[in-house]
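Example S7 (C-alpha cells).
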C-alpha cells in the first residue's frame, strides 16, 4: 500500500471524540500535556538577592551571630513562556489545562506583544540553568556586595547558601576574563555544572525561550581527589581552540578544587544554545 493511501485512510481528526465518556476525554486531554516542561536557560537579572534571617530552629543557626543568609532567589527571575496549544482547542480542553497548570505551578500572564494570555513558569533549580551574559557578568559578580552595603545589611555578618546548581556563560567571557569561572564560586558554592555557550554573540533574553541544543559534546569532568579536570569521551562539537580556552580557564579553578573550597562541581561543558519556536493559533 502506498504512503498516499495510508494518509488518505488515517484522518487527523476524530469526529466521534465528543461521543466518548467525559472521563475518557479528560484522560486524553491530560495525556496530551507534558508531565514536566523541558529544561531551559533563564537570563540573569538584577534584584534577585534577598536576606534570610535564621531562627534557632533553622539548620545552620549559630548562637551569638547575626544568622543572616544572603540567598539568590531564583523565583525572582523572569518567567519563561510555555507553549500549550491544547488550551485553545475547546472549553473542555481549557479546563484540563488549567488543572494541569495548577499542579505544575504554571501561571498565566498577559503578553503585550501578542495581546493574549500565555502560560509561563518559574525557574526550576532541579533542571534549569541560569545564563549570565558577557554584558552583565560584572553586575552579576558585584550585586551581592552591593546588596550587603544596603542599610538593612550594612556592617552585619552575612553568609551565602548554595542554592544554584547549573550556570551558563558565553565562551567569549573566558577570553575577556580568564578567571571568571573561579569568581562564580565566590557566592555560588553549590554549582554542579557550568555550561560554556559557544557563539553566544546574540542576545539570550526572556522574551524568547532559549535551550541548550545538545549535551552530547565532550566535557571537562572534575576530579576532586587529584584537584584537576579531565576531558571525557564525548563528541567534538566546536573548534579545538575553544576547548583549549575552556581548559585554560580551569587552571585557577583547579586550585580551589584541590583546596576543597569547591565540593559540588561535576563538569564544565561547551554547548550551543538556540531558541525553540512557539506554536501560534
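Recovered sequence:
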Amino acid at each position: 500500500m502506498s504512503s498516499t493511501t495510508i494518509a488518505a485512510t488515517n484522518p487527523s481528526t476524530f469526529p466521534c471524540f465528543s461521543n466518548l465518556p467525559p472521563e475518557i476525554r479528560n484522560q486524553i486531554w491530560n495525556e496530551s500535556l507534558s508531565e514536566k516542561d523541558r529544561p531551559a536557560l533563564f537570563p540573569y537579572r538584577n534584584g534577585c538577592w534577598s536576606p534570610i534571617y535564621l531562627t534557632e530552629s533553622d539548620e545552620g543557626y549559630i548562637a551569638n551571630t547575626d544568622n543572616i543568609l544572603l540567598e539568590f532567589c531564583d523565583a525572582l527571575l523572569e518567567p519563561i513562556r510555555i507553549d500549550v496549544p491544547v488550551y485553545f482547542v475547546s472549553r473542555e480542553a481549557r479546563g484540563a489545562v488549567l488543572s494541569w497548570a495548577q499542579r505544575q505551578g504554571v501561571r498565566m500572564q498577559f503578553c503585550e506583544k501578542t495581546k493574549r494570555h500565555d502560560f509561563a513558569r518559574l525557574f526550576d533549580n532541579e533542571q534549569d540553568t541560569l545564563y549570565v551574559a558577557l554584558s552583565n557578568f560584572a553586575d552579576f559578580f558585584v550585586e551581592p556586595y552591593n546588596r550587603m552595603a544596603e542599610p538593612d545589611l550594612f556592617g552585619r555578618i552575612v553568609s551565602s547558601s548554595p542554592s544554584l546548581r547549573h550556570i551558563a556563560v558565553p565562551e567569549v567571557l573566558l577570553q575577556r576574563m580568564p578567571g571568571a569561572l573561579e569568581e562564580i564560586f565566590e557566592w555560588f558554592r553549590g554549582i554542579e555544572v557550568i555550561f560554556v555557550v559557544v557563539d553566544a554573540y546574540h542576545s539570550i533574553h526572556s522574551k524568547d525561550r532559549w535551550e541548550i541544543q545538545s549535551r552530547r559534546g565532550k566535557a571537562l569532568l572534575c576530579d576532586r581527589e587529584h584537584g584537576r579536570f579531565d576531558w571525557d569521551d564525548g563528541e567534538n562539537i566546536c573548534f579545538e581552540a575553544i576547548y583549549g580556552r575552556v581548559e585554560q580557564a580551569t587552571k585557577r579553578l583547579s586550585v580551589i578544587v584541590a583546596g576543597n573550597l569547591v565540593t559540588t562541581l561535576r563538569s564544565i561543558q561547551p554547548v550551543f544554545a538556540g531558541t525553540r519556536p512557539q506554536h501560534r493559533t
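Notes on this example. The chain has a mean pLDDT of 83.
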